[in-house]
Every structure is written in structure tokens, then in C-alpha cells.
Amino acid sequence: MRWASNKxxxxxxxxxxxxxxxxxxxxxxxxxxxxxxxxxxxxFGKYWPCLMITSVIWLGCRRIMIxxxxxxxxxxDVKKRLWVQNLLILxxxxxxxxxxSYFIKNYCIALFSDQKPDHxxxxxxxxxxxxxxxxxxxxxxxxxxxxxxxxLRKSIIEKEQLKRDTLDAQLNALRTQVNPHxxxxxxxxxxxxxxxxxxxxxxxxxxxxxxxxxxxxVKDEQSILLREELEVLEAYTFLMKTRFGENLDIxxxxxxxxxxxxxxxxxxxxxxxxxxxxxxxxxxxxxxIDISTEKxxxxxxxTLQKKNQEMESTGLGLENIRNRYRLLGDGAVEVEEGPESxxxxxxxxxx
Length: 351
Prior knowledge:
- By secondary structure, the protein is an alpha+beta fold.
- The chain has ten helices and seven strands.
- The strands form two sheets. The chain has a five-stranded mixed β-sheet, covered by helices on one side. A two-stranded antiparallel ribbon has the order 1-3.
- Strand 6 and strand 7 form a beta hairpin.
- Helix 1 packs antiparallel against helix 5, helix 3 (78-103) packs across helix 4 (105-113) and helix 4 (105-113) crosses helix 5 (121-177).
- The protein starts with 12 loop residues before the first helix and ends with a strand.
């Protein structure tokens, strides 16, 4: 049996050892009034059968708790888990107690022999089953209390981690956008556009302002509507299309009914930035980026035409998106690299 299971919440070896030994002692002494220092004596010969029954019930209930927490891991399933778990535990405790009591019937009858010489086997089963149920419920209460404290501590830690990752995403986005290269490239584009098309230059400044404003607006958000993410992505697309012209082809195909679903902030922008940063964008090799939805996921794919870079990508942007989805518990980010394309699938969060 695996100890220190993360479904238990702590290393319960000592609790199990002392719990089994303690219950095996408490049941005959408290429930059946056996005495240690005076008649009717509670001897070791009468202790070990109770120890055996208690061990089987304890370990079996422990196994059921691990199974139920694996089967119903989400917080919203706690009520269902407790119903299923406690019903199975009580059923197991009764069945195990009755079967084992049958095989050591003489011991169970002896529990009452001095106090009630005329007691029946049925009376013995009633008392032993009542003791088994009460001790089992006490054991479950101990485990559940420790487990809930563990889950609460884990939730607090994950919440803090999510805050840190969200802040990192904001800072990374700001560093990416407000850096000499970004400003230099966009200012050069703006300078080139102003004499040729002043109206387009005004639109360029407006869209660049929209991108910056969006970054500041989502700084405290864990997720935002897909509609909002696509709106700012259009602004970012306008900047990139103005810069690269026909060398960059961006296609967005998202159904209207999916716009109310949510994604982590700046995820699409980060993925598009990565595609442009790490691939050749030229008239000879236009870069195609496609954004669509499929089976509850947002698919971002681009043609794979890697630049000859001296340093490998750190992958921090993609890893940041992965971590935020992992902490939100809404599915995993999937990445697929083919011979001609790079595909990233991010989960859509229910609105």
C-alpha cells in the first residue's frame, strides 16, 4: 500500500498505527466494559482479534477514501464525493465486521460473557456493528479534517502562484511591447506611412494605443472573454500587417457562439508574437497564421519556416500560458510541431 498519498494529504503511517491500536483497545474497554486491572480481564489473547478486525476496516476505509478522492477530484464534487465515499465506507465496515466476526465468533461472544451470560449472537452483532460504525465515522472525520486543511493550504499556494504567473505575463508582455525594437520598428513603420497615407498613420497610432491600453486593463484578470481577446488581437494584427504587408497572412475563424467563452489574457498575442519572432516573414516565404476553434479549444497554427537564430528560444511565453492554465485547472495546452507547421491548442474556459 502506498503511504503519503497526495490523496490523503499527509504521511499517515503513525496515525494509522496508533489509530488502529487505540481503537482496538477503546472498543472492548469503552463499548463492552472490559477491564485491564480487574475482572473481567481484557488480555492480549482477547486483544489481537479486535486488532485484526480494526486493521482490516481501517485500511479498507483508507483505500476507499483514496479512490473517491481520485474519482471526484474537483472542489465542486465534494458533496457527491462525501456521499459516495461515506456510503461505501459504512457498507464496507459493516460487511468486514460481520464476516470477520463470524470467523472469530467465539471471541465476539466472549466480549459479553461476564456481563451478560445469556446474551445472544444477534445482540453481539448489534453491539460490535455499532462500535464499528462509530469508530469508522471518527476515523473518517480525522482524515477529512486533515485533508480539507491540506487542500485549503494547497489552494492558497496555487492562488498565490497564479497571481505571480499572471503578473509575469503582464510584465513579459510589457517588456515585449515597450522595448527599443518594438518602438523602433513601429516608429519606422509610422514614419513610412505618414507621408504616403496620413489617415492610415492616424489609425496606426490608435491601434497601437489600443494594444497598450488592453495590457493595462487586464493586469488583474485571470481570464477574459474570447471576444475581448480577439478585439485587441485585431489591433495587434493591424500593426503587424502595416509593417509586413502581404508577407504576413493572418486568418481568424471563430464562431459567434464561442465568443462568450474565456481564455487567459494576452495568450493569443503571445502566441502570435512567438510565430513572427521565430519564423521568416518575407515575400519569398510569407508567414501564414491561422486562428480557429475546434472541440472546445482555440487552435493557433502557423507555417514553420524557422529563422537561423544563434540562440534557442527560451519558450518562456508558452510556458507561462501553460502554467496559468494548469493552475486554473481548465485543461492543458497542447503543442504539435509538424514538418511544415507549428500548432498550439489552448483550452476555452466556460463563461
